[in-house]
Specification:
There is one protein chain. The protein has 3 domains: about 160 residues, no CATH class; about 60 residues; about 30 residues. The protein is built from 6 helices and 8 strands, in the order H-E-E-E-H-E-E-E-E-E-H-H-H-H. It has a 3-stranded mixed beta sheet, with no helix packed on it. Strands 3-2-4 form a 3-stranded antiparallel beta sheet. It has a two-stranded antiparallel ribbon with strand order 7-8.
Length: about 325
């Protein structure tokens, strides 16, 4: 997938004329900052991309059947974090984060396009159709500076009845999980590989083994074990969120799949080790080159000091010899 663009890209950076700039100057109404009902009192932040790593999966909690869903995280486009930098005024809009996104793609991350419209049935009530990144007009509670608060489409602000409390938000998890399921059904996110499923099942089984020896109430034990059984079933039946035909059986990962995944990991680790060794050799060569230069400079300096000492010694010897000759051959006294 190509590197996506920012959700709020300005079509033209240059105003039509100076009158347009003059007309954009809005009068400031001091003392009435909180009268706008569509402005929330919260600090501004930076926009973000949503992304998924091939090993990051979770189990649904609101869908009718527990299924395996993609684990989604933020890549905040704030300069100074995750390789994002401040772009110069002559660079393109995505120059500040383009390299950062591509580097993370090379590490196995897949980015979701913020311009893809989400179906209304997957959005909270009252939220307009659009992408996953939404902007709210906000006012910083401390400084009073206006800005934008970027949130996910499912993170809806609520009425704040208490001025002393922070701005409340409600996250619609049920609609969010419908969208997560749609991501895999539509092919935007690839389903988990057999090796990844095996790894998650192994982790859940370790949790089960730790619960077994505990002295628990039978009812609590049954509840805990049933939860983990459902999680194992969800990972095992990962076909529930794929495009496979009805009744298609997904083979459980065997030793060959796990061995192939481990072999691929070994190859990647060897590549990383080779790159590290190359960098170390390069650094050692630069260090040796710098050490030789330092040694040459020190030798030159020592030679200059030795020459200086030798010159001073010759000068002192010449002066001493001159004094000796003067003592051996005193001038004759004048006759009276």
């Amino acid at each position: 997938m190509p590197v996506p663009s920012l959700p709020d890209v300005v079509a033209s950076k240059s105003p039509a004329d100076s009158k347009s700039l003059a007309a954009s100057m809005e009068p400031v109404a001091f003392g009435v900052l909180g009268t706008d009902p569509n402005v929330v009192f919260v600090r501004s932040n930076a926009p973000f991309f949503l992304r998924h790593h091939r090993k990051n999966w979770r189990i649904s909690t609101t869908l009718e059947d527990q299924v395996c869903l993609a684990g989604i995280t933020h890549h905040v486009l704030q300069p100074g974090g995750k390789g994002v930098r401040t772009r110069s005024k002559n660079e393109e809009d995505d120059a500040g984060y383009r390299d950062s996104v591509r580097n993370h793609m090379d590490k196995g991350w897949s980015y979701l396009n913020p311009m893809d419209e989400i179906a209304p049935e997957m959005l909270p009530e009252g939220v307009k159709p659009g992408g996953y990144c939404r902007a709210l007009e906000c006012i910083d509670p401390l400084s009073g500076v206006r800005g934008k608060r970027y949130v996910e489409a499912w993170d809806v602000p609520q009425i704040n009845d208490d001025d002393d409390e922070a701005q409340p938000f409600t996250f619609d998890l049920a609609k969010y999980e419908l969208w997560l399921r749609f991501l895999v059904e539509s092919g935007q996110v690839s389903p988990p590989s057999p090796a990844v499923v095996a790894r998650h099942i192994k982790r859940v089984n370790r949790h089960r083994d730790r619960i077994k020896p505990l002295n628990l109430d039978p009812e609590i034990r049954r509840e805990w074990m049933s939860r983990r059984d459902a999680v194992v079933a969800a990972y095992t039946n990962a076909k529930a969120i794929t495009k496979l035909p009805q009744g298609t059986q997904v083979p459980m990962p065997g030793e060959d799949a796990i061995a192939a995944e481990q072999a691929a990991q070994i190859v990647r680790l060897r590549e990383i080790a080779e790159q590290a060794m190359a960098r170390a050799d390069d650094a050692e060569a630069r260090l040796a080159k710098g050490a030789k230069a330092e040694e040459a400079a020190a030798a030159k300096k020592a030679k200059a000091a030795a020459n200086k000492v030798e010159a001073a010694a010759k000068k002192a010897a010449a002066k001493k010899a001159k004094g000796t000759r003067q003592r051996k051959s005193p001038k004759p006294k004048a006759k009276t």
